[in-house]
Design goal:
Monomer. This protein is an alpha/beta fold. The protein folds into four domains: 140 residues, Rossmann fold, CATH 3.40.50; 119 residues, Transcription Regulator spoIIAA (2-Layer Sandwich), CATH 3.30.750.210; 91 residues, Transcription Regulator spoIIAA (2-Layer Sandwich); 75 residues, OB fold (Dihydrolipoamide Acetyltransferase, E2P). The chain is built from 14 helices and 21 strands. The chain has a five-stranded parallel β-sheet, with helices on both faces. Strands 17-18-19-21-20 form a five-stranded mixed β-barrel. Strand 3, helix 3 and strand 4 form a beta-alpha-beta unit. It is globular, with a radius of gyration of 24 Å. Bound molecules: S-adenosylmethionine (SAM) and FE3-S4 cluster. S-adenosylmethionine binds next to strand 15.
């Protein structure tokens, strides 16, 4: 069905989007907003009260995130009663898994879409408005599409729009690993990679608009296998080599990766591609081989350590972050100690750790789990204490060093400061001119705080280069 064009938009308010979960969801929410801006002229607003369309992009990785959806929908239905022509949409992984339950339990919801059908949102909203206006339809129900039409999503999303010097580019979707605890393969479908030329075209467009840093995104981004125009398959290493040649792209990140996809050619990138940051997010979940096997991670702790050792041989300053799960069914105190030992040995920077949450439909949900929640909480406390200590020590160790940062914006702390990020993703606030936004500068770190660093400018190599060019032109 053709959707309404911007000139005959049925809305006079704005668009409000609430996002739960991972960076993939943040990326998808940005795409939804730009799609609805282009279709209906809807601008983003800061509160649902100002909005005609409200969307919730949901996450079902853990139970808590899922519970939030139904409590939030309860509030939204009261809000809709005040202005019934508003449209409520629910997308993301909860919609994918529980779409029909939402349809039954939350009649105020008009549109239900999954992570792979968000590009169909305008057509679905048009259909919801048609159903609403059709008096012959007595029992009105939400329009729902939670299918997995594979690559179609990538083909139908709007061109990238830049609002900064760093951009995320989604290169693959879904996961085919089926870890026994995880819902992602069921909610987002199996791994599907975007064609190589499409990804390159998007990055070139971003570079032309002033983007300097690209963060390649995927649920298992290092499982990227994009088809090239000659029919050959490009893996993540090939993509990284190709994108570093794009003028203006001087920093490359990728997240989130799977240990079994750290191929030798990807490891070699740490020697061959200076634009690739010395920071790696590589989840291991647990240090115990027994638990790794029960999780069906298909590798052992020693293989993970060997990967890290190889990368650190090429980049001794590699900052490593990870994801950890404590209290997996059957995890003993000795298993947990192995996790602590692994963390001690590898030294992690700003990582994520969670208590295992049983997810309906996953194999682990049926595993016997005799450990008390109190013990699991205690384990999480110990692990987080160690992870926080390591993070703080890394921050402290950066004081006195010179770091190259990409200046992204004005600082939130002071009118005279600008803010940028180091390779290991720390925010640094520094006194400096807004003209430096979009440039790489060298700063000496002077202070370390919990969530940021403070520094002083040592060199502005790109500004100098620019001035020199002007000087020669005179
Ligand atoms: N690709 C990544 C990898 O190699 O593990 C994982 C992506 S997953 C969506 C993000 C993180 O959520 C996982 O690394 C895991 O720590 C956490 N997670 C997933 N399912 C979970 C569950 N049932 N309970 C607790 N944490 C979970
Ligand atoms: Fe989930 Fe394991 Fe894939 S954690 S996203 S099934 S690698």
């Amino acid at each position: 069905m053709a959707h309404a064009s911007q000139t005959d938009t049925p809305f006079d308010g704005g668009l409000y989007v609430i996002t739960y979960g991972c960076q993939m969801n943040e990326y998808d929410s940005d795409k939804m907003a730009s799609l609805l801006q282009k279709t209906y002229g809807l601008e983003l607003v800061d509160s649902p009260d100002e909005a005609d369309v409200v969307l919730m992009n949901t996450c079902s990785v853990r139970e808590k995130a899922q519970e939030k959806v139904f409590s939030e929908l309860g509030r939204w239905s009261k809000w809709k009663a005040k202005k019934p022509n508003r449209v409520i949409g629910v997308g993301g992984c909860v919609a994918s898994q529980e779409g029909n339950v939402i349809r039954q339990r939350a009649p105020s919801v008009d549109v239900i879409f999954g992570p792979q059908t968000l590009h169909r949102l305008p057509a679905m909203i048009d259909e919801a408005l048609r159903v609403r206006g059709d008096d012959s339809i007595k029992k009105k129900k939400a329009v729902i599409d939670i299918t997995f039409p594979e690559i179609e999503k990538f083909d139908n999303l709007p061109e990238p729009e830049v609002n900064g010097v760093s951009a995320m580019v989604s290169v693959m979707e879904g996961c085919s690993k089926y870890c026994t605890f995880c819902v992602v393969p069921y909610t987002r479908g199996e791994e599907v990679s975007r064609p190589f030329a499409d990804v390159m075209r998007e990055i070139e467009t971003l570079a032309q608009q002033g983007v300097r840093e690209i963060n390649l995104l995927g649920q298992n981004v290092n499982a990227y296998r994009g088809e090239m125009e000659d029919g050959e398959i490009a893996d993540l290493a090939v993509l990284i080599h190709a994108m570093r040649e794009i003028d203006g792209i001087d920093r490359i990140r990728y997240t989130t990766s799977h240990p079994n996809e750290m191929t030798q050619s990807l490891i070699d990138c740490y020697a061959e591609v200076p634009e690739l940051v010395s920071h790696l997010h590589l989840p291991i979940q647990t240090g115990s081989d027994r638990v790794l096997a029960m999780m069906k991670r298909n590798h052992m702790a020693i293989e993970y350590k060997s990967t890290i050792r190889k990368i650190r041989a090429l980049r001794p300053n590699l900052s490593l972050s990870g994801d950890f799960i404590v209290g997996f069914p059957g995890e003993t105190c000795d298993d947990f100690k192995e996790t602590l030992a692994l963390v001690e040995e590898l030294n992690y920077d700003r990582s994520f750790s969670f208590i295992y949450s049983a997810r309906p439909g996953t194999p682990a949900a049926a595993f016997p789990d005799e450990e008390t929640m109190e013990k699991k909480k205690r384990r999480l406390y110990h692990l987080q204490e160690l992870l926080n200590k390591q993070t703080a020590e890394i921050s402290e160790s950066m004081v006195g060093t010179t770091q190259r940062i990409l200046v992204e914006r004005l600082s939130r702390n002071s009118f005279t400061e600008i803010a940028g990020r180091t390779e290991n993703n720390r925010v640094v606030n520094v006194e400096g001119s807004p003209d430096l936004i979009g440039q790489f500068i060298d700063v000496k770190i002077t202070e370390a705080y919990t969530n940021s660093l403070k520094g002083e400018i040592v060199a502005t190599p790109e500004a100098d280069k620019y001035e020199t060019q002007q000087f020669h032109a005179l």
